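During the no-cost extension, the postdoctoral fellow (Dr. R.K.) reprocessed legacy sequence entries with the updated structure-token encoder. One reprocessed record is reproduced below for audit purposes.
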Amino acid sequence: MEKFTFAYVPKSVEELKALPESDMDSPYKSAALAMLVLCNYKNDVEGTYSMLDFLKGPEPLNPYEKKFLRDRLRDKEYKPFSFFEGANVDNDYTPTLPLTIVISETPYSFREDNWATLYIKSGGADSPRPIKFRRKPSTNQWFVNEIQCLSDIRTPKSSDPWA
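Re-encoded structure tokens follow.
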């Protein structure tokens, strides 16, 4: 388990590269950055795609992945924020500042060489959600392979007609 703290959500690839975690020498760093970058989605979809392309390394987002993100985040831009400490249903997934996220593993997280599946707890879900990475041996960098953690979570209290 590793914990990361960020003062801000990057709004460009340059701001993302300025973060110390952007060396991506561990999948934990890459996971924290991926979730942080997704918090920019509601402000700038294309800018978010550019930052995700950086985090995906030699294989940028394809049209299917962009559609997947659009489908998961449309009218639910709160989802990425739900993975940061302090965010919960009652406060409409507003995390505490600075932004802090915990990335965990299971006994099965590193079963294959150069592959990792890590887990992130959402304030709107009962179990941690996965995100998958692939290591590029020549650079020892861990790149995002699949963002599997964006399935639905509980509706924020202010949007829930049954609350």
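DSSP finds four helices and five strands in the chain. The beta strands are 2-6, 99-104, 115-120, 129-136, 141-146. The remaining legacy entries will be reprocessed before the final report is submitted.
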